[in-house]
Hints:
The protein is an alpha/beta fold and 207 residues long. The chain is 13% helix and 29% strand. It has two domains: 81 residues, 3-Layer(aba) Sandwich (Rossmann fold); 118 residues, UDP N-Acetylglucosamine Acyltransferase, domain 1, CATH 2.160.10. β1, α1 and β2 form a beta-alpha-beta unit.
Amino acid sequence: MGVFVFGAGGHAKVVVSTLRAAGWxxxxxxDDDLQKQxxxxxGVPVLGSIAxxxxxxxxxxxxxxxxxxxxxxxxAELPGWEWxxxxxxxxxxxxxxxxxxxxxxxxxxxxxxxxRLGAHVIVNTxxxxxxxxxxxxxxxxxxxxxxxxxxxxxxxxxxxxxASVIPGTSIGxxxxxxxxxxxxxxxxxxxxxxxxxxxxxRSRRAA
Length: 207
Ligand SMILES: CC(C)(COP(=O)(O)OP(=O)(O)OC[C@H]1O[C@@H](n2cnc3c(N)ncnc32)[C@H](O)[C@@H]1OP(=O)(O)O)[C@@H](O)C(=O)NCCC(=O)NCCS
């Protein structure tokens, strides 16, 4: 029948493309955004809200929200689904890498030996994960992010576009590393850091 995709935004578009490149058929998408109902993503129909997905028997699926908290929320709210691992044929994942359910590795990404990726991780376009790294559940490594060897990225953290993390450092749970940052020391749980070298940012929104 094909794989169901949860989310119908920009990241879902890339996931649909990646599923097809990896040889999967895509059955349809679910999204709670009313404006997306009855629309198509790369020719695949949006079938309804996520509440409607709960009315069908669980099948194979992918949570295709770029937002880490949304993937965590829907993973908890959709029991019984078989979350598939999707690896783009132009990505490299060493055979020794352990990959959790629902994780996606997009085009141009590289995951080196004995790295461990949790569940529902996104290794986005062109991101690199070097040897012995650990990425917890719901981590997002944004396009072009680079992790040196032995880096630990804890659950729910976002490493932003083009950020670099030096070997052996830890990124705390649910923290955010800003785009273009160079992380040279550990990042605290829930922190927002940015710059070269990365330092805590003061958000204008929180002010
Ligand atoms: C770090 C980030 C989350 C900050 O967002 P925010 O809390 O809304 O921050 P604000 O826009 O209010 O900016 C707060 C300050 O931080 C600075 N800042 C924001 N992002 C920064 C970054 N990436 N590097 C350095 N400084 C940054 C701003 O210039 C501002 O400084 P100022 O007050 O001196 O002018 C965001 O800018 C970012 O880089 N997100 C990553 C996005 C990404 O890669 N997504 C993946 C998509 S696939």
